């Protein structure tokens, strides 16, 4: 989830009473409460418009290039390129490392 930088606090009687957050963040919070995998519309859009795999779309959404993701995972950039290829079945431990490096849940990159 992106950090909530555009939260609006509404006060009543001088005390914080309500927090207004962007709808996208609200949907993500709801999915998290239900234990569901949440994939932002922007990630899905990158998959559809640019033909990216789900992992590649998440990486782009998070503002990372392949080298940066590789560095976070302790692997090479060509390894990331291979993982991001559509139809490639990476090992579960590799996918967990990808999810950790992207700051997402495993089911968000595998659904």
Describe the protein in words.
The structure is a single chain. This protein has 111 residues and is mainly alpha-helical. It folds into two domains: 36 residues, no CATH class; 72 residues, lambda repressor-like DNA-binding domains (434 Repressor (Amino-terminal Domain), Orthogonal Bundle). Helices cover 56% and strands 10% of the residues. It contains seven helices and two strands, in the order ββααααααα. A two-stranded antiparallel ribbon has the order 1-2. 14% of the residues are buried.
Overall mean pLDDT score? 88
Here the CATH topology of the largest domain equals: 434 Repressor (Amino-terminal Domain)
Instruction: Based on the coordinates given, report the CATH architecture of the largest domain.
Output: Orthogonal Bundle
Question: How far from one another are the termini?
Answer: 17 Å
Q: What order do the SSEs take from the amino end to the carboxyl end, as H and E?
A: EEHHHHHHH
Instruction: Tally the structural domains.
Output: 2
Alpha-beta content class: mainly alpha
Number of strands: 2
- The main sheet orders its strands as 1-2
Protein name: Transcriptional regulator
Domain HTH cro/C1-type: 55-109
InterPro entries: Cro/C1-type_HTH, Lambda_DNA-bd_dom_sf
Organism: Saccharospirillum salsuginis
Task: Provide a quick synopsis of the model.
Helix content is 56%, strand content 10%. The protein is mostly helical and 111 residues long.
Keywords:
111 residues; 2 strands; elongated; mainly alpha; two-stranded antiparallel ribbon; 434 Repressor (Amino-terminal Domain)
